[in-house]
Write a structure and sequence with these properties.
Elements: E1 2-29, E2 34-51, E3 56-71, E4 76-90, E5 99-114, E6 117-144, E7 146-173, E8 178-196, E9 199-214, E10 220-235, E11 244-259, E12 265-292, E13 295-309, E14 313-324, E15 332-351, E16 354-369, E17 374-388, E18 397-412, E19 416-446, E20 454-458, H1 465-472, H2 476-482, E21 495-499
Antiparallel strand pairs: 1-6, 2-3, 3-4, 5-6, 7-12, 8-9, 9-10, 11-12, 13-19, 14-19, 15-16, 16-17, 18-19, 20-21
């Protein structure tokens, strides 16, 4: 007789559990009387995700809305307002064990403006993802009068979530003629993720687009993009160099402090939030076939699904494009500034070894026309870029994030704009793999044994040593012991001599 030995493995699949949309109407009170709105923009920062009663979560965050305008004294001015929001998202699978959410500002719509206020509508998309646990029980071995053929399967699973907050700071030297800062747009992207024993190193770049007023013979607006790198080490117990980490970085807040020195300086402290997951690969040894020396056996199998995630690919790509202003627009004399650059409408395509990311780069351009009047326009430039990803194919599920590192706009030929930008792109790809595992072994009828003292077996086409052992109900170890020439395998026509011990009674 024999006994089965069972093993268990827990798989955690990353799935989208729910999504929602929240509208945050904002009324920005201005410090002085408004003459003309030049641009409105908004930044959305994720606050937290809390599990509520029943199958829902509460997603909280804040929206910072900025209005740049010309005031009653014909001066450039700006005001910001911070609003918080909380939205309930119903989950399609409440059994998830951990969550994080991504938020995107979909639309910023200017409403009516009069006197000292501007009304803005912010529409935000919310996506809640989670780890879904799946317990698998399988036969890992046999003991007693039986032999098992074992196989090893590599299974990848999302082990745990990482939520890390940290800050990065930079001191920016402003133009000596800077008369004030109207706003700073900050974005961040991941450049590299390094995994070592017990820690993960996150390296990336923060981009700060400073919108300022420049004094001189003519007071005007200008903007300048500044980039600075950051590095953060997160210590995680049990992490090994064989593991993988996937994740994205987002700006969660910005603190500004100006100093007047020989040249004016701006100290920027950026609050960064990294959201990601640890992906581990484990080896599962299971019984793929078995036979008993004494009884027939039947094996029950079940399909186990697990996720194979490729290492995250991070790239910096250049985007260039031209656009023509609407027909009724005035001719451009010079570009003053651009602000609020962001990505919308991202679509992803995949062929073997390559991922295509396309979308629209949108930015608000403030310019002076030939009649010396100030105007603004939202410029939208489609982009398409191809990034090489080793091992990827059409069977993979792909998620890509893109953030603007820098964006420069130039005027050309009266009503044409040329946009030159640099984007940070992160690509996460995973595929679902199915492995058939033996879950139960059932004992059947007793076998009729061959009582011959010696059996000569001739190997047939396609047979292996395992096939022969299963046919004659003798362990492969015993066959090799009696036929040492079989240790390295068998070939068609080989003769195998089987000696069975006989009990003689007197």
């Amino acid at each position: 007789m024999f006994e089965t030995v069972h093993g268990t493995a827990t798989q955690r699949k990353l799935e989208m559990l729910g999504k929602g949309q929240v509208r945050v109407p904002v009324k920005v009170e201005l410090g002085t009387t408004l003459k003309k709105v030049l641009s409105t923009s908004a930044k959305c920062y994720l606050g937290g995700v809390e599990r509520g009663d029943g199958g829902e979560v509460r997603v909280s965050g804040k929206v910072i809305t900025r209005v740049i305008y010309i005031d009653e004294f014909d001066a450039f001015n700006s005001d910001e307002r911070t609003d918080t929001f909380t939205e309930r998202v119903t989950l399609k699978n409440p059994s998830a064990v951990s969550f994080h959410a991504a938020s995107i500002v979909l639309e910023t719509t200017l409403g009516e403006s009069a006197g000292q206020s501007v009304e803005v509508d912010n529409v935000i998309d919310l996506i809640v993802v989670g780890l879904i646990p799946q317990e698998m029980r399988f036969v890992s071995g046999l003991t007693g009068q039986a032999e098992a053929r074992r196989e090893v399967a590599k299974m990848t699973t999302f082990e745990r979530a990482i939520e890390e907050r940290f800050s990065a700071d930079e001191r920016i030297e402003l133009d000596k003629n800077c008369a004030g800062v109207l706003g700073v747009d900050c974005t961040a992207c991941v450049r590299d993720l390094y995994v070592d024993d017990g820690r993960v190193t996150i390296k990336g770049t923060v981009s700060a687009n400073v919108i300022s007023v420049r004094s001189g013979e003519v007071t005007t607006m200008t903007n300048a993009s500044h980039e600075f790198d950051f590095s953060k080490v997160v210590h995680l117990q049990g992490l090994t160099a064989e593991d993988n980490v996937l994740g994205s970085i987002a700006v969660a807040g910005v603190t500004l402090r100006a100093e007047n020195k020989v040249k004016p300086e701006l100290n920027i402290e950026v609050d960064l939030a990294f959201n990601g997951h640890v992906v581990v690969t484990t080896q599962v040894e299971f019984v793929s076939d078995a036979f008993s020396f004494d009884n027939a056996l039947s094996l029950s199998t079940a399909s186990a699904e697990h996720t194979n995630a490729l290492p995250q690919t991070n790239a910096v790509v250049d985007v260039e494009g031209n656009m023509t202003m609407p027909a009724n627009s005035p001719y451009i004399a010079r570009i003053l500034t651009s602000s609020g650059a962001h990505i919308t409408g991202v679509n992803i395509g995949c062929t073997d070894g390559k991922v295509t990311v396309e979308g629209v780069l949108a930015t608000t351009v403030v310019y002076e026309c030939e009649e010396k009047q100030i105007h603004s326009h939202v410029a939208e430039v489609p982009f398409n870029t191809t990034i090489r990803v080793e091992g990827i194919g059409s069977r993979f599920n792909i998620h890509a994030t893109a953030s603007v590192i820098s964006c420069y706009v130039k005027g050309r030929r009266g009503k044409e704009l040329m946009v030159d930008a640099k984007l940070g792109v992160s690509i996460v790809a995973s595929e679902t793999i199915t492995t058939d595992l033996t879950t139960e072994i059932t004992i059947g009828e007793a076998k009729i044994r061959d009582e011959s003292a010696i059996v000569i077996y001739m190997v047939e086409s396609g047979e292996t040593l395992w096939d022969i052992a299963k046919r004659i109900s003798m362990s492969t170890t015993e066959i090799v012991r009696q036929n040492p020439n079989c240790e390295k395998g068998v070939a068609v026509g080989d003769k195998i001599f089987i000696y069975r011990q006989q009990v003689i009674n007197f």
